[in-house]
Structures are given as C-alpha cells and as structure tokens.
Amino acid sequence: MRILIAGGRVIDPANTRDAVMNVLIEDGRIAEVVSPGGHPAPAAERVLDARGKVVCPGFVDLHVHLREPGREDMETIATGTRAAARGGFTTVCCMANTTPVNDNQSVTDFIIDRARRDGAVHVFPIGAISKGLQGEELAEIGELIGAGCVAISDDGKPVMNAELMRRALEYSTLFRVPVIQHAEDAHLTGKGVMHEGRVSTELGFKGIPAASESVIVARDLLLAELTGGHYHVAHVSTAETVQLVRQAKMRGLPVTCEAAPHHFALTDEAVRSFDTNTKMSPPLRSSRHVEAVKAGLRDGTVDAIATDHAPHTIQDKEVEFDYAANGVIGLETAFGLTVSTLVDGEVLTLPQAIARLTSEPARIFGLPKGTLSIGADADVTIVDPAREWVVDITKSASKSRNSPFHGWKLRGQVLATIVSGKIAWELQG
Amino acid sequence: MGLKSKDLLGIQVLSVEEIRLILDTAASMKEIASRDIKKVPALRGKTVINLFYEPSTRTRTSFEIAGKWLSADVINISTSSSSVVKGESLKDTGLTLQSMHPDVVVIRHAVPGAPHLLARLLKASIINAGDGAHEHPTQALLDLFTIRERRPALEGLRVAIVGDILHSRVARSNIFAMKKMGMQVRVCGPPTLLPRYVESLGVEKFLRVEQAIADTDVIMMLRIQRERMGAGLFPTLREYSKLFGLNVDRLKVARPDVLIMHPGPINRGVEIAPEVADGPYSMILDQVENGLAIRMALLYLLAGGQAANN
C-alpha cells in the first residue's frame, strides 16, 4: 500500500525541514520526502491532497492515562487511542496508575498486547517507580523496561520519600530511562483543591501553594545531580519550577520537563465557575505562573507539550468541587489549544510548536518517533493550522467527557492521522 | 424592582441597589415581628425546604420561623436522617427535591459552590445559607442591617473583623458586602488564620488586635474553632485568647460607642469575654433578631411576588 501526501507544507523539526514537499508512504514507512517540482509524482493507491495544509510527524504524548486495565468505565486502550488519533497523536505513553498498577511485567505485557489488538496508535507503557505506587520499595524496574516500558513514574502520586527518589534515579541509570516525578508535596497540598491565590481567597477553597510543586522539584534536582539519573518533571505548573529547571539545564543536569495545554490555556480564574472540570493536579495556576510556563516553552526549558489526558466518569465529576476527581481529558483539544494559545499568542512559531509535540518529546524519552526521516515508521499528521472549529466534547472518542473546553472556539484542526502507514483517522467534511 | 437572579448564592453577585432593596424590605418585615399575631399570608401555598448538610441552630431556625411567619410551608431536612447517609449525591438529592416542587431551597453545605451546583439543577430559588469558607450572604445582610439601625450612613464606616478569617464564610460575605457599601474593612488574626492573599479582597491586615480595633465603628469577633488547633494553625485556645480575645481591658483602646458584633455561637472567655458579650454595645442578640427580618425579606423577594401586596 502506497499513500502519497501531496503538496503540503512539510514541517519536520527532527530534520529541520520546512518546505512544500510530497511525502510518499510505502509498506508502513516513510519512503520519500521530495520537492513536488521537477519530477512527476510517484504512483500511489491513495493520494491525499495536502495543498494549503501542514504535514508533520505524528504527535507524541508523553503523558496519558488510558485507565485499562481496571477502569474501563472511564477509558480503554481502544477508546483512548482513538481520541489520540483524532488529536493527531500517533504515539502515547500511558501512566502506571491502573488497577492493577503497572508495576510488573504481566501488566506491561497486557497493555502492549491490548494496544496491539485494540489500539489505534502506538502505545508505550510507563512502569511504576514503586510497588503498588506505595512510595516505599522500588518496583522491578529492570523487568518493566525489559517488557517494553519506556520510563518510570508513580504519577498521580508524588514520590514523597527522598531516599526512594534518590534510589530510583540511581537505579534508572542502569537502563537510561527517565524518572518522571509528579511533583507535589503531599503535606503542603493537604486537602487543597485549587491554586492558593487571589481566587482561592475569594472562593474560600483550601489552596495549594505553588511551593507545593516547586519544593519537590528543588529537592529532586539536587538528587538528580547526586545520582546522574534522568529526571523528568511531569506537568510543570509554576514559575519557580520553570526557573529551577532552567537553572538545572544551564548547569548541564540531565533534566527535562513537559507542560499540559490546560496549564497554558487556563488560569485559576476558571474555577470561579465552580465547574469541576477545572479541578486537576497540579491545579490551574494564576496568570503569573501561566506566563512563566509559556516563557519556558519559548526558551526550551519546557521540552514538550503533554496532555495528562485523565478521563473520569460523570459521577466522579458531577459532585461538589471538594469531592470531584482531579483531571481532564486533553488529547483531542491539545493541538487547537497549542495553536490558539501559543502560536496565535506569539509564544512559539508553528514549527516550534510542532517540535514540542513531535521531535522533542521523542528525543527526551529516546523514542524512535516524531520524525519523517526516510525509513521511519510512517506516523504522519496532517493539520490545518488556520482552520477554526468549535470543541464539542459530546462527540469525543474518549469514553469520558471531563473537559473544561467544551464550546471553545479554537484555531488549528487536525485533518488526518496516519499510523504506520494506515489512516487511523480522517476528518469528514 | 426585584432581585435579578432567581437565587441568592452570595453577596459578590449582588449590586448595591439589590443590597439596599433587601435591607429596606427587611425593615418592613421587622415590623411584623413586633406584632402580637406574627403571621402574614405573603407566602401562603409556597414551600420552603431547609436542606442542611452541616449542623446549624440559629440559621436553620431563623429560616424556619421566617418562612412560617410568611405562611409558607417549611420542611427541614437534616442530612444525618435522610438518604444522604445512604450515599445519595447532592445532584440526586436536588433532583428528587425538585420533583416535589419546592419554591425555595435553603442549603448549607461544607463545600464552596454546592449551592451553585443545586441552582443549576433546580427550578426553585436557592438560598445559600453557608457554603464552606466561601459565603454566608444572609449573615452579612443581617450584619449590615444591624449596623445600619445604629449608624444609618454605612459609607465610610470602619470595621475590624477579628479571628479565623481563613475558614470564615461570615468574614468573606461581610467583606464583600461592606466593600460594596463603601465601608473600610480591617482584618486581624494570627497569620496562620489569615489567607495568604487576604489583602487582595481590599482589606487592611493587622496582626495586633489593639491596632485593628482602634478608631473603628464596629468590631466583629469571629468564633474560633477548636479543631483548627489540631491542624497546627495555632497552639492552644489559651494562647489564642491571650493574644486575640476581646476583653474589657483591650476594649479601652476602642471608641466608647463602638458596636460589638459576633455571628455566634460564641465561645465565652475565648474570643470574647462575658463582660463584653453582655455589655451595652453588644449587638449579638440584635443580630439574631434581625436575622429573622432579613430572611423574611429574602423569602418574600425570591418567592413572594405579588401575593404580598394583599
């Protein structure tokens, strides 16, 4: 099967390429990327007219929750990866906080088998740092990596024990995989439900200080320096975290981080609606922090955009704010929010934004993805960065509906997603 | 003129005109309370449900009496003896109540925004009788009413609110209300019980009671809750009382005609000394009495409509 994507603007940051090109896919791999002028277009069974559109590597999401095994009422590998395909993602890394926890080889095997059977996109599991995410003893990390995990994390929970974090970072150097921290001091957060600031003061909610995240990052950076382990901060949300990571990178430490679209598209002002879809961990922060996250994306301190796609049932969200589950779904809105907020807001150019969704996340996790190099897996996303659309979350491919962006008008729409040379999703109309 | 919203969810969403309307309506309601036969037919055939998820004596009783004096049928639901203990969600409780066609649901709940959730689900008017540390609008309105009885021009008055501001919905609603009416508000308490960003509410922060209460027209003491001690927010009630309690000695720095208020229930000898609570400028019992008038006014404005002209 040959697919020709003809006449699009190819933005392939991994190969520093930005030009009008034809992309030929053959047997699931990138076969040719050539300028359309000069020689005749090659024959193909399917030709996608990409004139006026942007052709880029499939997006890579370092942070999703697919909920399978255990919470198939919220999401499954089948539905979560379909949401990914609709969002232009061809690769997702799924967190270990399933039921049972992905802290042993058999769970990793299950996820990989299920993804092979049901998945619409590539799935790379992330293994647990500690057994049962209990934060006490290390999981069998070697076996997890051997089974196919690409990183380790207790995400959903912080590793509070500094000694365990030290050992995880140290041990991880054996396999050269990132140790992902959900940076949050459990004591400083306490029963907090939103960012501590002007809005929490007015609404009377218990606040989560920005320091709750940053003190853990500061601690862990010292441990990364001590051990040489690759430390990756999930969903950075505060100005101080960005600054700490920036300084650590300048000192040459093996440190990377990601930011979620909701943390650059929304501030804590959104909580005034009492909409529980504005409740997440870390919480939506004030504009000072949001601006700092954007500045981090601009100067490269923040390496990647990752969704933290976190499906929850209606009954877990349609309750009082204090009792509502943390998290929002994000796969299908990530690109639109990136263009509308970061590109239109002149934080990033379109090629830079695409790099944060493709080559950068692939590079920092060492994944053979996020590129249109000849011979690479034909994971390709076609987008129209200028096209406007309205988010209708009732049409989401996810099993869940917990998004604060329903009804938002966004610029930047995904038109088609190709996974290993097969069209995984195509916008109709 | 009436209220713009079907609900009373907080002070923050009210305009100055609406606040004046409520206070003026309460003034005529207060007259009913002084009658020998305290009953008018304004809300005959209307149903008021008190839905209290937190214990309350004065607010619940006040709403119940206010409703009954206006001839409404008043039903009390306390969550300890309802299907809430069987795990029914607020949404389902709300929808169930809606099917019984109440005109007003008065809700108290531990979580900010719970009345707002109910207001979205129900056709009935929702009155917020306290949502977590967010708002307690009827308390702030009765406090304004009480102050206005003694100091008719609210604008420019200076008020000191002393105590646990962090956890206090009374403080928040009063700050919102008083700022709207052009009053100057000071807050005072241990730094651990003042919100980190309290000044963003437009108030002045004080750490010493003597400085906070000097040259003010009103001192509002807040109840200190014993359970905050366990949370490590202050060491002991004894130390709290020593540093922040309002006693006769401390009151010497205040104006001689300062009004002393407290939303109740009071901890005698902790945040307020008995001589002060029972003293000549204590408004504490006036506040309770005026609460009836304010709640009558609100029930009337939200559910009454034309009937009350009879």
Q: Can you offer a commentary on this structure?
A:
- Chain A contains 14 helices and 18 strands.
- Chain A is of the alpha/beta class.
- In chain A, the strands form four sheets. In chain A, strands 1, 2, 3, 4, 5, 16, 17 and 18 form an eight-stranded mixed beta sheet that branches. A five-stranded parallel beta sheet of chain A has the order 9-10-13-14-15.
- In chain A, helix 4 (162-172) crosses helix 7, helix 7 (211-227) packs parallel to helix 8 and helix 8 (239-250) packs parallel to helix 10 (287-299).
- The longest helix of chain B has 21 residues, at 284-304.
- In chain B, the strands form two sheets. A five-stranded parallel beta sheet of chain B has the order 7-6-5-8-9. In chain B, strands 2-1-3-4 form a four-stranded parallel beta sheet, sandwiched between helices.
- Chain B is built from twelve helices and nine strands.
- By secondary structure, chain B is of the alpha/beta class.
- In chain B, helix 1 (16-33) crosses helix 12 (284-304), helix 3 packs parallel to helix 4 and helix 5 (137-150) packs across helix 12 (284-304).
- Classes of the chains: A alpha/beta (429), B alpha/beta (310).
- The interface between A and B is medium-sized, with 20 and 25 residues.
SSE arrangement:
The complex is a heterodimer of chains A (429) and B (310).
Chain A: E1 2-12, E2 17-26, E3 29-34, E4 46-49, E5 54-57, E6 59-64, H1 77-86, E7 89-94, H2 105-118, E8 122-125, H3 141-147, E9 152-153, H4 162-172, E10 179-181, H5 186-189, E11 194-195, H6 198-203, E12 207-208, H7 211-227, E13 231-233, H8 239-250, E14 255-259, H9 261-265, H10 287-299, E15 304-305, H11 314-317, H12 334-343, H13 350-357, H14 359-365, E16 380-390, E17 409-419, E18 422-426
Parallel strand pairs in A: 1-4, 1-5, 6-7, 7-8, 9-10, 10-13, 11-12, 13-14, 14-15
Antiparallel strand pairs in A: 1-2, 2-3, 5-16, 16-17, 17-18
Chain B: H1 16-33, E1 47-52, H2 58-69, E2 73-78, H3 90-98, E3 104-109, H4 114-121, E4 125-131, H5 137-150, E5 158-162, H6 169-180, E6 184-188, E7 204-206, H7 209-213, E8 218-221, H8 227-230, H9 237-244, H10 248-251, E9 259-261, H11 274-277, H12 284-304
Parallel strand pairs in B: 1-2, 1-3, 3-4, 5-6, 5-8, 6-7, 8-9
Helix pairs in contact in B: 1-5, 1-12, 2-12, 3-4, 5-6, 5-12
